[in-house]
Design goal:
The protein is an all-alpha fold. Helices cover 65% and strands 2% of the residues. The chain is built from 4 helices and 2 strands. The longest helix is centred in the last third of the chain and has 50 residues. The N and C termini lie far apart (76 Å).
């Protein structure tokens, strides 16, 4: 779908596209591990989306009897890329699916605001993305902790042997 009647959906659609691009172009996209800075940045995107949806649905609801229905043309959606980082692939796919659901929803055919079911559906996508980030960050911390322990063990084992082999 390349048109909507809801002016609020245009802004949400554009932000979703921008965040999809950001997820696909982050430093973590082409490596197997998601970095903490990228995780923090993506969390801020999801928080922004949550705030935007709450703002769109907040009172006062606009009554637009003179301008409704008005058609808004949507920009071309970004192409989903084949990335090495499966977390980034999954997040981009979630955001893309949420975007497509919203622009084909009943809310997209209203002049402003959200139908409660569409808002709930969007928040489900957002919550799922937040869960992916939480588990990713937890795994990252576990890997860092394990790596540090292995380095310490290696140093403790190798350094005394080197000192015996090279006395000064």
């Amino acid at each position: 779908m390349n048109e909507v009647l809801n002016m609020d959906m245009v802004g949400l659609y554009n932000r979703l596209n921008r965040f999809i691009n950001e997820v696909q172009k982050c430093q973590s996209a082409n490596v197997s591990m998601t970095s903490a800075p990228d995780t923090t940045r993506i969390k801020s995107y999801l928080s922004t989306l949550r705030f935007l949806v709450e703002h769109i649905d907040a009172d006062p609801q606009l009554d637009l009897p003179e301008t409704n229905p008005q058609t808004y043309t949507l920009r071309e959606a970004p192409v989903l890329l084949d990335l090495e980082n499966e977390n980034c692939v999954h997040l981009a796919l979630l955001l893309s699916t949420a975007r497509d659901e919203i622009v084909m929803s009943q809310s997209a055919r209203m002049s402003t605001g959200f139908v409660i079911f569409d808002k709930t559906r969007f928040f489900s996508f957002n919550s799922k993305a937040e869960t992916i980030l939480r588990t990713t960050l937890l795994r990252l911390r576990q890997l860092i902790f394990l790596s540090l322990r292995l380095v310490r063990r290696f140093k403790a084992k190798v350094l005394p042997e080197q000192a015996l082999a090279n006395p000064k």
